[in-house]
Design goal:
It is a single chain. The termini are far apart. Helix 4 packs across helix 5, helix 4 packs parallel to helix 6 and helix 11 runs antiparallel to helix 12. This protein has a four-stranded mixed β-sheet with strand order 1-2-3-4. The longest helix is centred in the N-terminal third of the chain and has 33 residues. Among the domains are: 51 residues, no CATH class; 95 residues, Transcription Regulator spoIIAA, CATH 3.30.750. The protein is α/β, with parallel strands linked by helices and 347 residues long.
């Protein structure tokens, strides 16, 4: 019965708009098909006596409007230690979901949105909700897609959705409690199919292997842990590691000997940081330059961290140890500041 009701729900959601377009009957598209799906499956389940899990089985619905109340927890460091990590996890998931929702809506409507304003408003709203006994919320892709898909694109549509939901939960809870969960599942299947980027499946083959690995790892961790924050954290971590690996391979050191003056010049091109520091050091043939004047030209290079500066210092010390006079040319301002700071720390 469950699978049959799901199939019927999907048939209503996708079939009514298609039928209205084929028969040229705008009336079939006047009412959103997901709403018709909820009403039809509820009436069918009630009339046939089909026993399906309903909204009432998910938890107790409210019987009155929320009232203001100050949180009854002590304001102490012990309380902060208890709630800090869960609060950070909830905030991270909420922000990610809200930003993803905004991105999906931007793509559907071809309009830009202010993500910072969205997240700031979300934070203020969650603080206010907690003072009325509410739990933290965030932008929901399912609700937003449904809203946009059926014409709700202004700020009033968001307000109306919230007010109507409040009316449903309080004034019409007896009716809402009878809605079979499978009707909501059918709607979520529609939303998932609408928001999923099906081209990404073929793009996995065309994209660089490292990028595809990050995408797959994010999806696998999210599904395995049921935690979006964990999946995104793994994806960001892998992206950082792979990026460092790619950039480190772009480092090039070329050597040029001036036969007239006997000066050996090494020209460094690329980014020098912790991942490329060893390659930078190994590129200098110290023994081959013994006793000569040496110039290290870093005009086209950038030193990002203390590991990179330490590598340059190590190369210069090795060259001086073998009787070379060393001159470093072309340090940009940021690299020079970092080197001066390290020199001051040593002094």
């Amino acid at each position: 019965a469950t699978w049959a009701m799901l199939a019927l729900g999907l048939a209503i959601i996708y079939g009514l708009p298609w039928l209205g377009a084929v028969l040229r009957l705008p009336a079939l598209s006047a009412v959103p098909s997901p709403l018709i799906c909820v009403v039809a499956l509820t009436l069918l389940a009630q009339s046939l006596g089909v026993h399906l899990p309903t909204v009432a089985d998910l938890g107790k619905l409210p019987d009155s409007l929320p009232v203001f109340g100050w949180p009854g927890v002590p304001l102490s460091l012990d309380t902060l230690r208890i709630i800090l990590l869960p609060a950070l996890a909830i905030a991270m998931v909420g922000l990610l979901e809200s930003v993803l929702t905004a991105a999906v809506v931007d793509e559907m409507t071809d309009t830009p949105s202010d993500k910072n304003r969205e997240c700031a408003g979300l934070g203020v709203a969650n603080i206010a909700a907690s003072l009325f006994g509410g739990i933290a919320g965030c932008g929901m892709i399912g609700q937003a897609v449904g809203n946009v898909k059926y014409g709700g694109r202004g700020r009033l549509s968001t307000l109306f959705a919230g007010v109507f939901l409040l009316i449903l939960m309080v004034a019409l809870k007896d009716w809402v409690s009878r809605v079979p969960v499978i009707a909501l599942v059918a709607i979520m299947v529609m939303v998932s199919a609408s928001t999923f980027d099906w081209r990404s499946l073929t793009a996995l083959v065309r994209h660089p292997r490292l990028s595809s690995a990050v995408m797959l790892a994010t999806v696998v961790v999210t599904i395995a842990t049921h935690n979006l924050a964990a999946g995104v954290a793994v994806g960001v971590l892998l992206s950082g590691v792979f990026f460092a690996f790619k950039v480190s391979r772009m480092l090039a050191v070329q050597v040029h000997d001036d036969d007239a003056t006997g000066v050996r010049t090494w020209r460094v091109t690329g980014q020098v940081f912790f991942a490329s520091a060893d390659a930078f050091i190994e590129a200098f043939d110290v023994l081959g330059a013994e006793g000569r004047a040496v110039v290290i030209d870093v005009t086209n290079a950038h030193f990002w961290d203390i590991t990179a500066v330490a590598a340059l210092d190590k190369v210069a010390e090795r060259l001086r140890h073998h009787g070379c006079t060393v001159q470093v040319l072309g340090l940009n301002e940021a690299s020079g500041v970092l080197i001066d700071r390290m020199a001051a720390d040593k002094g």
